[in-house]
Design goal:
This protein has one helix and 19 strands. With about 325 residues, it is mainly beta. It has a four-stranded antiparallel sheet with strand order 1-2-3-4, with no helix packed on it. The chain has a four-stranded antiparallel sheet with strand order 5-6-7-8, with no helix packed on it. The two termini are about 35 Å apart. The model has no long low-confidence stretch (mean pLDDT about 95).
Amino acid sequence: LHATGGGTPTLEVQPVAGVPVVESPYRNSGLHDLALHPDFARNQLVYFTFNKAGSPPPAQAAGAAPPRRESRVALMRARFDGRALTAVEELFIGESYNTSGSRIAFGRDGTVYMTTGAPFDEAAQDPASIYGKVLRLSETGRPAQGNPFAGRAGARAEVFSLGHRDHLGLTVHPVSGAVFNAEHGPNGGDEVNLILPGRNYGWPRVSFGRNYDGSKVSESPVAEGIEPPHLLWVPSIAPTGLTFYDGERFPAWKGNLFVGSGRRGEIPGTGGLERVVMNEKMEELRRETLLTDLHQRIRDVRQGPDGLLYVITDEDDGALLRISPAPLPAR
């Protein structure tokens, strides 16, 4: 988007050049998330996650559904001059797997946190797989110093936490530096989690959700050694991007967590924006759902440098929305 002199924003006609080409496009391929290096103003570095083609799918059996295409999630880096990406390089890439989206965020120590999904099997519980995890990497894509599984036999040193399903939101608290994700349960059991080193978040063995045929994922939604959700939604909200608000334009919202929602309870056209009020200990006080009258899927929410909230919708005719305070009534 571009705005001159504070005027009405308009969409740039030309897309950003230099984004890698998707090899034979398929579901979940291509670009997923983008983050600016903390020192972007000086070095112009941007980081993004990108799903590349994986191993060729096996031959389709007679009468069976087509096998899912595998992909390899990668962390990429490039320079951005305002028009194009240059010097694009691959910093990290995972093994071929039936994975989905990925989100990234910079920690306050300059490390890169990266989510990887694992909705279908036991990969999320396997420390030798990078899928179903939150990874913690250096800015060059190497395992970050102090990672909890480093040096452990049969484990990947990049792994920071495990037991995750599809997590399509990731944010770092602007004051404490705590890391939070937004994670899809199957049918219900959507979560926001406080991500702690070496902890297990349960998937696919423990969940508050049900399978899509209505059966329980687990007899109990809690178990010893499993981190409970920080926030929970039953029925599901299909959580997407999330951010903590710390601006000045909405004083009453300062410290609130905002979570995008694709749909509620598996019903199309019911997406919105969740506002969660927390106390100083990050404990939930109350919730409010916004933007439901749009009847659109919310894909992401971010705070802009102007202190306003920006929301993007995931539709055939999607939009970037700018949320600003309502004008005060005339006296």
